[in-house]
Amino acid sequence: MNRKAIVQQKFGDASVLSYEEIETPKIKDQECLIKSTFTSINYADIKTRIGNKGTGNFLLILGLDVAGTIVETDTNSPFSIGDRVIAFSKNGSYAEYVIANEKLVFKIPDSLSFEQAAAMPTVSILSYMLLHEIGQITKTDVLVIHSAAGGVGSMLVQLAKLAGVEKIIATVGNLEKANYVKKLGVDVVCTYETFKEEVLKQTNNEGANVIFDSVAGDITSESLECLALYGTLVQFGNSSDKVGTFKTSDVHSSCRNIKGFSLGTTRKYHPERLAPIAKKVIELFDSKQLNLPIAHIFKLSDAAEAHQLIESRNYEGKVLLKV
């Protein structure tokens, strides 16, 4: 059986993405074959396409997650043919059919739309873990969420509000996105150029308790300069493509913490940690306590155009591919 997919044979700009028909892989032990309905685009896909995330095994298919229906299972699988699921795919998700390890497949209720389901896996599971396991936020914390208008940022804001956090300061690349993040629950919006001064102003020069940094580069060092004593900087990405640096003296005398987290690493080495988190966020989406705005839905064949939108940063929420 063949499948339509977006593939690339080399690293480069969005033009390297090609819509082709290729062979559908066979499932192995403890794997499922899923017929895709929607897949989402994450910024990590851009970095992989360009070649910033190491060497590629070409023919390469991008994509981290998928929403769809199970069409084939392993013997003694906990899943059945016809189950509606979200999943982290094994070798890319920009395709009509994808394979996933059973530990990275999660059932969704009939009442949850495939659109919302496809928007959520990476950003909602990551955000929940960042807030509650890594950042260990409390209601009285002052939070800084960088890149708040993106998929992860949008989710961090909503989950923080659900947890009762009283003050959220957000950065955006363009103040035209201020209304969007305020509607999600942000209290103070600033740019990357002004956030340090604004955080100190809002906290009587004490600094923020927890800062979520997916940008790195200069943003990391400036975040430390407005982090409170005993505060935590959670570093989980480098969308700036620059290395953030700090000195040991930045942390030991101030009792600050710097914690790193990668959902990709956790999927690879400790996938069992994700199932209980997935269950919680699926319930929050199904009960409409969480909602992820969909910026745009492209056809699978238009993946290159979707990547161009992501790279322009001129969007709010999630970008999906309809398979």
Protein described:
The protein is of the alpha/beta class and 323 residues long. The protein has 2 domains: 150 residues, Quinone Oxidoreductase, Chain A, domain 1 (Alpha-Beta Complex), CATH 3.90.180.10; 142 residues, Rossmann fold. Helices cover 29% and strands 27% of the residues. It contains 10 helices and 15 strands. The strands form 3 sheets. Strands 3, 4, 5, 6, 7, 14 and 15 form a 7-stranded mixed sheet that branches. Strands 10-9-8-11-12-13 form a 6-stranded parallel sheet, sandwiched between helices. α5 links the parallel β9 and β10. α3 crosses α9. The radius of gyration is 20 Å and the shape is globular. The two termini are 17 Å apart.
Task: List segments where confidence is low: pLDDT < 50 over at least 5 consecutive residues.
Answer: none
Largest beta-sheet details: 7 strands, mixed
The 3D shape can be described as: globular
Mean pLDDT: 95
Radius of gyration (CA) equals 20 Å
Which architecture of the largest domain does the CATH hierarchy give at level 2? Alpha-Beta Complex
The CATH superfamily of the largest domain bears the name Medium-chain alcohol dehydrogenases, catalytic domain
SSE ordering? EEEHEEEEHHEHEHEHEHEEHHEHE
CATH topology of the largest domain: Quinone Oxidoreductase, Chain A, domain 1
Structural classification:
alpha/beta
Beta-strand level of the residues, as a percent range?
25-35%
How many β strands by DSSP? 15
Distance between the termini: 17 Å
Number of individual domains: 2
Classify the helix fraction into a percent range. Answer: 25-40%
* Number of helical elements: 10
What is the CATH first-level class name of the largest domain? Alpha Beta
Domain Enoyl reductase (ER): 12-321
Protein name: Quinone oxidoreductase
GO molecular function: mRNA 3'-UTR AU-rich region binding; NADPH binding; quinone reductase (NADPH) activity
Keywords: NADP, Oxidoreductase
